[in-house]
Amino acid sequence: MIVMKFGGSSVANAERIRHVADIVRSRLERKPVLVLSAMGDTTDHLLEAGNDAYRKGIVSIGRIEKLHHTTMKALKFSAAARKNINPLLEELRSLLVGISLIRELTPRTTDYLVSFGERLSVRIVAAWLNSVRIKAEAFDSWQVGFVSDSGYQSAELIRESWNLIPEKIIPLTEAGLVPVVTGFIARDVNSNITTLGRGGSDLSATMIAASCGADEAQVWKDVDGILTADPRIVKDARPVETVTYDEASEMAYFGAQVLHPRAMQPCMKTGTPVLVKNSYNPEAPGTRIIPSLEKKAPVRTITSRRNVTLVDIVSTRMLGQYGFLAEVFSAFARRSLSVDMVATSEVSVSLTLDAAHDLTELKKDLSRIASVEIRTGRAIVTIIGNVRRSSEILARAFRTCQIIGVPVQMVSQGASKVNISFIVDDVEAAEVVRALHLDFFSSLDIREKKPAAAPAGKKAPPAAAKARQGLPRKESS
């Protein structure tokens, strides 16, 4: 068995759905299970419709109806094929009427609201598969064993799901059926619909794969796997053939468009491989995520995350005063602020967090025990690589930053030992990523060369200009 998860862009319209059907047909002998996201921007449109009903008393599902009706028309659905779609749209309209009347939109109601995206998606795709003679059936996730707690908008699947899912799924695939299952959603023990939070659809797929003992979980996106850098920054970024679970987790934490670490947990538990593929280019080999690798290149990928805040905290107490760090992190915990990077000494700590926070009260609180400097407009650049070669990686990274004239403001190596992260100004992040990628992945190097004497009346070119020239170097391992 394989589990194939397709995101919203992969099922965004009739053309994409036909393409998905072709991909599924080519893999029928592997007993596929499909997990789908909502079509295109449907989730955003559902949330907007909910807010309009709640705040303005306006009930409108025009954009949602148009997308799904247009898709069914393009796929030439018969009246019988539409019978599972129209009742759901009416149920959605009734929910919005209720929201507009009582002017209340709770987390529980929001989860119910956004669930319509996946529920509509699986019914349309299953109907199309049957129309092209692929035996398929749509399932809401709770019909195939997905049971969660009641943590609305970020629910966790309960332990019983590990047994319930294979009990439901395996007989279906053994009978030659292609189950088409909603991603992202579940039901709690009280039959309330919940959503699984960030990476929820990927989590649905990996949970099915891990619990059913599948050969692999396939996550179909719109890129050729995990790339050595963001292709919007580095045009010649290339796919990485294999990475470990730990490496993929660190990539996701620090800005790469990979599976959310939470979504990989079921497969990490069972050692089930995850294959990241491109639905727009199915012949590309993609990237395989596996438990471990014997031989590793010095660097796997370079990521960046912009718009972060750097906080420097220096104790104003005596040297060696115990409890300083405990008080610092307690102040962050009281305000539910999640810290990304940390570098500490006995009397100081530097850390980063997302910029979308008001830190006025935090600074006031910490000022009792420390001097606090808050600097916005920073970026985290992360190198995912081979821990055994961390000294080499650090030396080359710092040399690169020196050559292009970018000061490193903070450095941290994660406990997983597969990442080295450092802070630069936000406006410098893209240049740093390009320069590092050139050094680690290109046949060209940004070696510092002794500057030639400048003609009279002219200054020698700055280091940054030399770095961009891509001077030739010897190949390195």
Beta-sheet strand percentage? 15-25%
Contiguous low-pLDDT stretches (5 residues minimum) are 444-477
What would the average pLDDT be, to the nearest integer? Answer: 89
Terminal CA distance reads 38 Å
Taking Cα atoms only, what radius of gyration do you get, to the nearest Å? 26 Å
Instruction: Give the number of domains.
Output: 2
Shape assignment: globular
CATH class designation of the largest domain: Alpha Beta
Helix content: 25-40%
Instruction: Give me the secondary-structure category.
Output: alpha/beta
By CATH, the superfamily of the largest domain comes out as Acetylglutamate kinase-like
Tell how many strands the DSSP assignment holds.
19
Q: Main sheet?
A: 8 strands, mixed
For this entry, give a set of tags:
single chain, 477 residues, alpha/beta, Carbamate kinase, VC0802-like, eight-stranded mixed β-sheet, 15 helices, 19 strands, 38% helix, globular
What would a concise description of this structure say?
The chain is α/β, with parallel strands linked by helices and 477 residues long. It has helices spanning 14-25, 42-56, 62-74, 79-82, 86-102, 107-131, 161-174, 200-212, 245-253, 261-270, 324-334, 360-366, 390-403, 429-441, 463-467, and strands spanning 2-6, 32-36, 136-139, 147-148, 178-182, 185-188, 193-195, 216-221, 242-244, 274-278, 287-290, 299-315, 342-344, 348-354, 370-385, 410-413, 419-425, 444-445, 471-472. The longest helix has 25 residues, at 107-131.
